[in-house]
């Protein structure tokens, strides 16, 4: 029996895995249903569509930047299982608000005045929900798992997350928006029930006073990570990776509609390919490293990712225009001569990305003391979210400067070079630590 198979049969891992999976599914079902509906049914301008997609991404990310320090303190100083139950109960209320916005938009009732603000408010609240859940899902692993199980557990969580993203993305592109509204509320209810099954995870340090000043506490958390060079380098490398990912995810819906003349189902297919690839990469790197936490393959992985992004740009650039024609459905799109190369490029981007980022997350939970893991994850979330907000602003700025959406892909390819350099520095720090 493999370590992964063994873990999914245990109560110390399975309820957390299911709760995380349902949360990621719900995030993506809701967010993609909202973005795809607005892009394809409300706006009719590439710039407006790209701007809305970027605003939605920025709102979801903002709480990670502002509240991660508080979330990390709570997770390390309070019972993690109790926090999970509170957070998942809040998700039910949030999805009731978001679901109402989706239904109002479907009915055409005050779409821009009431429906869209309600949807964006719920998206912001889901960002808060994920901010408080994020440190727990990784910090609880070394507390419940044995030392040789942490990398496998991290890989399963990452793979499960992207499988859930895959499922939520598929449904968002294919089911009616009013059905999605009911689906997000139902999923939140099931997630709350699974979260109640997570075993207790009491704090490993004595309770300390919580610093509610988000700026000083955030700075203190980030500064503390510099004590561990491997952890700090991993955080910076992960941040560049997610900046690239943010730019790509923002571009997919307007790119599919305006460059490829494809329907929202095809935009959903793009996100599906990306999610499948990340899951494949997450499991592949665990097999290559045989359970050892190492950045050995990270520089090469992200260079390959950049090559595939550049290739994806070239395929999009050569894609024939279809002026005046209806948007292509999935079957029509797949029949295009360049469709298979396009999808293979997407798959390559994601596989390489998964192989790059999973070992880096494992550094965050194995290098520091178990009593500091949640705060370390929180520091990572702060830096990641800041980088992702910058990525969103770059996308908005490039669109405002009339840079074609397809040419914005080259920004992601260039940033992969920086990520490779950071991955190399991390590997050097890793080898230095082992030699000491």
Could you characterize the architecture of this molecule?
The protein is an all-alpha fold and 436 residues long. The protein has one domain: Growth Hormone, Chain: A. The chain is 80% helix and 0% strand. The protein has 16 helices and no strands. α2 runs antiparallel to α3 and α12 (298-318) packs antiparallel against α16 (409-435).
- Assess the beta-strand content as a share of residues: under 5%
Compute the number of structural domains: 1
Structural class by helix and strand composition: mainly alpha
Stretches where pLDDT is under 50 for at least 5 consecutive residues are none
Main β-sheet description: none
Rg from Cα:
21 Å
Our count of helices gives 16
Q: For the record, give the distance between the C-alpha atoms at the N and C termini, rounded to a whole number.
A: 35 Å
Number of extended strands: 0
Q: Output the CATH class name.
A: Mainly Alpha
**Shape verdict:** globular
How confident overall, as mean pLDDT?
Answer: 82
CATH topology: Growth Hormone, Chain: A
Write the layout of secondary structure elements.
Blueprint: H1 3-7, H2 14-41, H3 46-77, H4 80-107, H5 111-139, H6 141-144, H7 150-174, H8 177-195, H9 214-225, H10 229-258, H11 264-289, H12 298-318, H13 330-334, H14 339-366, H15 373-400, H16 409-435
């Amino acid at each position: 029996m493999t370590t992964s198979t063994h873990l999914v049969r245990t109560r110390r891992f399975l309820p957390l895995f299911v709760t995380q999976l349902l949360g990621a599914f719900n995030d993506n079902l809701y967010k993609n249903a909202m973005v795809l509906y607005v892009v394809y049914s409300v706006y009719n301008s590439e710039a407006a569509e790209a701007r809305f997609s970027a605003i939605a991404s920025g709102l979801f990310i903002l709480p990670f930047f502002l509240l991660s320090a508080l979330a990390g303190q709570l997770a390390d100083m309070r019972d993690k299982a109790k926090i999970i139950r509170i957070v998942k109960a809040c998700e039910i209320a949030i999805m009731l608000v978001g679901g109402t916005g989706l239904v109002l938009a479907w009915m055409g009732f005050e779409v821009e005045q009431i429906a869209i603000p309600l949807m964006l408010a719920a998206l912001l609240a889901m960002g808060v929900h994920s901010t408080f859940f994020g440190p727990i899902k990784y910090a609880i692993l070394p507390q419940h798992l044995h030392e040789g199980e942490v990398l496998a557990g991290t890989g399963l969580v990452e793979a499960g997350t992207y499988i859930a993203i895959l499922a939520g993305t598929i449904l968002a592109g294919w089911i009616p928006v009013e059905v999605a509204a009911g689906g997000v509320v139902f999923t939140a209810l099931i997630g709350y029930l699974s979260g109640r099954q997570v075993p207790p995870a009491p704090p490993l340090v004595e309770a300390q006073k919580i610093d509610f000043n988000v700026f000083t506490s955030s700075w203190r958390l980030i500064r503390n990570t510099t004590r561990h060079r491997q952890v700090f380098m991993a955080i910076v490398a992960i941040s560049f990776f997610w900046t690239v990912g943010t730019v790509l995810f923002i571009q997919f819906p307007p790119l599919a509609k305006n460059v490829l003349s494809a329907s929202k189902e095809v935009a959903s297919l793009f996100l599906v390919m990306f999610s499948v690839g990340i899951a494949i990469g997450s499991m592949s790197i665990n097999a290559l490293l045989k359970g050892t936490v190492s950045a050995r393959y990270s520089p090469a992985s992200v260079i390959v990712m950049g090559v595939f992004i550049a290739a994806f740009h070239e395929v999009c650039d050569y894609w024939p225009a279809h002026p005046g024609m209806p948007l292509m459905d999935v079957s029509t799109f797949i029949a295009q001569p360049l469709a298979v190369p396009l999808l293979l490029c997407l798959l390559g981007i994601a596989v390489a990305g998964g192989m790059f980022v999973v070992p880096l997350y494992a550094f965050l939970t194995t290098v520091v003391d178990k009593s500091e893991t949640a705060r370390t994850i929180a520091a990572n979330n702060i830096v990641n979210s800041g980088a992702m907000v910058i990525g969103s602003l770059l996308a908005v700025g490039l669109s405002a400067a009339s840079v074609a959406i397809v040419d914005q892909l080259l920004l992601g390819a260039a940033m992969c070079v920086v990520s490779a350099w950071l991955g190399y520095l991390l590997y050097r720090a890793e080898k230095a630590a082992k030699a000491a």
